[in-house]
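Tutorial, part two.
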Amino acid sequence: MTDFNTRVARIRYNLEFSGYEAVVFIRADGTEYGYPSFVSAPLDAEYSHVMAQLSEAAKRQHQSTKPGMRSYQRRVTPASYAQELPPLAA
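Running the prediction step on this input gives:
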């Protein structure tokens, strides 16, 4: 099984649907994909459980043959060639 680097961002509780929603970013093969993710859970749910469930939902969507709505950003230049900015004046 492929191991993905995931990052959960913009997490919030949706009172209307009684669950947590977030954008989960998955980095694979030099490309970062963003997936909307939702987990049905009470407001006082265990934080680590909610984060794990959000990540798992995004991983399932990423591995699907029809991933649906997602965004992606491909790094154009390698990090070693990225422009180095001058230090800020104090």
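The radius of gyration is 17 Å. In part three we will examine how such features are distributed along the chain.
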